[in-house]
Structure of ABC transporter substrate-binding protein:
Amino acid sequence: MKLVPALLALAAGVLLAAGPARAVELSIVSGDTGNGIKVLREILDRYEKKSGNKVDIVVIPPSTTDQFGQYRLWLAAGSSDIDVYQTDVIWAPQLASQLVDLTEATKDVAGEHFPSIIKSQTVNGRLVALPIFTDAPALYYRKDLLDKYGAKVPTTWKELQDTARLVMDKERAAGNKDIWGFVFQGNAYEGLTCNALEWVMSNGGGEIIEPDGAISINNPQAAAALDMVKGWIGTIAPPGVLAYQEEESRGVWQTGNAVFMRNWPYAYALGNSENSPIKGKFDVAPLPAGTGEGDKPAATLGGWNLAVSKYSKHPDDAIELVKFIASREMQKYRTLKTSNLPTIAALYDDPDIARQQPIVPRWKQIFLNAQPRPSATARIKYNEASSLFWTAVHNTISGQGSASDNLADLEARLTRLKGKGW
Ligand code: GLC
């Protein structure tokens, strides 16, 4: 008689343990750049089919600086509204304490990714985010226009300036009234830190803060680089460039109104998309360098990762979701659709990627030699250090104060910040 309830209890226990699969609702937050959200949704649809879970995308503005501010608010409030954060490569040290350690859960796949990226997302031995794509910038140029005027692809900033001027002047004289020579990211935000690090470094002006912590930015080569850029505003670059982020630059470029553009690889797929006016008319090259002896091009290292919030109510499902999006198969899918650079070395030899997004294998070396921003050095103070830097740069290129005065002031401010400990 006692056997029946025991059997029933056993059956119920088996049912509970084995399923039916309990569906969970997850949310992932992501900035809106290019076709990134559309492709993320396609990836999530596949995840939903496979897992039975549901995932909402919380879409926020494209500026990484705005995103960081918003992430801090959510995390400071201990919000469980967001399970998975899409995080910029520079934010790991500042967000680490509020993110789940993924080391154990990803030990089967972490080794597929470039070790330098895994290292950048590891803080005090905890892997706090899994990479989904990496970033290294390109000089986009209009092949058709350079050919038309017999111009070469520039390898120095001076050549870029001269060619931009020449092509722009001739095109305008021929009635192409809206064309500009060069667009980039001149707004006062993290993107300007990326652009300005490239100008400064490629001109022999150092890394702003050196890996040993020395504040090196107040030097004549750095000042000369910023003076050069100031000379571009309103001449080869539209005055509005001082408010451009990635998407504004791409807007001008993709409508055919710029000879050159500095941007990340995502603009490659979009520029070649079906209705793009510049489809098939452009190519990419490494960014130019200064003209000093030993000057080499510099490319700032970017990239995006996925992290699980410590406040998530479903951390295990969230980790599975992160692993799914970061997987080799989904990275291939993303790369084919967006020309984002994968973080899995094997994909650089993939024949489909090489055929459909040739920038990817071509950009492997540029990415491997890209310059990290000083976030591993300034650590928890990186955001503040970067904001002091982009402010000094923005002031200089918009004509508020000389480069040398602004850099001397920046040095003093960074020294004070460092004195408070970073
Ligand atoms: C890109 C990079 C990111 C960088 C940002 C600046 O999204 O991947 O690392 O911080 O641009 O705007």
In short: The two ends are 70 Å apart (CA to CA). DSSP finds 19 helices and eleven strands in the chain. Residues 12-20 have pLDDT under 50 and may be disordered. The chain has two domains: 21-136+302-368, 138-300+377-419.
